[in-house]
Amino acid sequence: MTRLHIDWTACDGRGLCVELLPEVLDRDPWGYPIPHRQGPVEVPDHLTSHAEKATTLCPLLALRLGDEGSRQHVRR
Ligand code: SF4
């Protein structure tokens, strides 16, 4: 299971990722991607390649795959 992070501030809601991951994502009334179930977007292992494709093809780089703990923060 991998977590898909969506940056809704960058997304324009055209729905490419929803078309690539209909098992995981749905559209809200404005076209923005939302998970079928409330909470984090969890991608089952058998759909990882689809999620990677969506992440690569997102025109606004609004998708990121990975565990929350893998995010790197730079402290100064
Ligand atoms: S592909 Fe990217 S820009 Fe398009 S709806 Fe999905 S997250 Fe938003």
Written overview of the protein:
This protein is α+β, with helices and mostly antiparallel strands. It has one domain (2-39, 49-64): Alpha-Beta Plaits (2-Layer Sandwich). Helix content is 20%, strand content 22%. It contains two helices and five strands. The chain has a three-stranded antiparallel β-sheet, with helices on one face. It has a two-stranded antiparallel sheet with strand order 2-3. A hairpin with a 5-residue loop joins strand 2 (25-27) and strand 3. It is globular. Mean pLDDT is 89; it is low at 69-76. The structure holds iron/sulfur cluster. Iron/sulfur cluster binds next to helix 1.
Index terms:
disordered C terminus; three-stranded antiparallel sheet; 76 residues; alpha+beta; 22% strand; two-stranded antiparallel ribbon; Ferredoxin; 2 helices; binds iron/sulfur cluster
In short:
The protein is built from 2 helices and 5 strands, in the order βαβββαβ.
Largest sheet data? 3 strands, antiparallel
The count of helical stretches stands at: 2
Give the tally of structural domains: 1
Termini, distance in Å? 33 Å
Number of strands: 5
Taken in chain order, the helices and strands follow as EHEEEHE
CATH class: Alpha Beta
Instruction: Name every ligand kind in the structure.
Output: iron/sulfur cluster
- Secondary structural class: alpha+beta
Protein name: Ferredoxin
Organism: Actinophytocola oryzae
Pfam family, one: Fer4_15
